[in-house]
Amino acid sequence: MLRRLDIERLSPMQAQAAEAIQTHDNVILLAPTGTGKTLAFLLPLLQLIQPAVGMPQALVLSPTRELAEQTFSVLQRMKSPFAACCLHGGRPAMDEHRQMNASPPQIVVGTPGRVNDHLDKENLDARTIRLLIIDEYDKMLEMKFQDELERIVQRLSQVQRCILVSATRTHDIPPFMAFRHHRPVELDYLGHSQEDIPPAIHHYIVHSPSKDKLDTLRLLLSKLEDQQAVVFLGFRESVERTGHYLRQQGFSCSLFHGGMQQDDRERALYIFSSGAAQVLVSTDLSARGLDIPQLQNVVHYHLPAKREEYVHRCGRTGRWDNAGRSFMLLSPDEDSPSFQGIRFEEYPLLPPYPAPRPPQWATLYIGKGKRDKISRTDVLGFLCKQGGAKGEEIGRIDIRERHTYVAVRRTRCQQILAQCAGEKIKKMKTIVERMQS
Question: Do 406 and 363 meet the contact criterion of CB atoms below 8 Å apart?
């Protein structure tokens, strides 16, 4: 399974966590963001599922749709032999119900609200679930999901194992989270010297000569050249304003915030993660659940209010011991934050300032997906045979329930589109079009 994820071996944290989850009923896993906690709990989870039991056995709860989708995506890439589903808002619950009826899941990944909805409607049988994993449980409490969590936990009367996962240390575990049978084993990899940010990340201060930092942001992004960056802002309106400005300046941008429709947010994340956009302009909504192993840079346009927010933003880069950089933009009336254990260096913006370069990839939308029994091999064959593409001109492929996203070389995109026009995939007519960031 590790080969399917392009991983040679588990880290010491992942190996020790996997062993602990398999051998103990209750575990609290505390580890820095970007260290692979998702894999640390999914691997032992797969070992604990009983193949002959075709009912829900494990429930993984995530605080956001994006993190739930990310966890489900990792599970799919592992090519687990077990049936699984992902339940969250932003799409009809009836579609999820039909999917569960057609293929009863053994593993359920979901957000608390949607999981409770299916439990209320008896679409999901709580009595068969033996393993509960609560990912980012500190974020659950911060987002006021305590009531939703309590309702779920009270219904899971047959749970035998409970795993809590977090990237920050908290002693505020709610009383309803009563661990059955045994006290939990705590695995704490955060350390005691606040070194909970990957050491491969370098932290910089960039001074803006004016309160409006847009021009300073433009100059900084131009210095990054071909490297991607996530720019964090505090408000939806600021995301829209900044994205509009950067596009006017020639940057390829994806926008991401809570005011967007779920489908639009999914497209924005895919376009950025597939390399078809240079910049993701986002609120803190993407500070958890965005997993791009090679992301080199994060930029803090609006300053994080707390150290924990800074940690999670920074965790989008420097993953798996890759190098990363964090840039804090300061206007003349802003002071450099004093986060314990983090040392900032000055980053002078000196000429030259290269013009933005177009991304290497473009994103195609194909109007067929899993429900049409479309596979990665089908997509590759279609683009190569009908579209005339070569293997190296096709990048990431993401097959969703009703459609598929594919990254192709930008310089070949129009030719591939022209040759695919009117062609069929697996003898089915389909839409093939380019998605814009």
Answer: yes
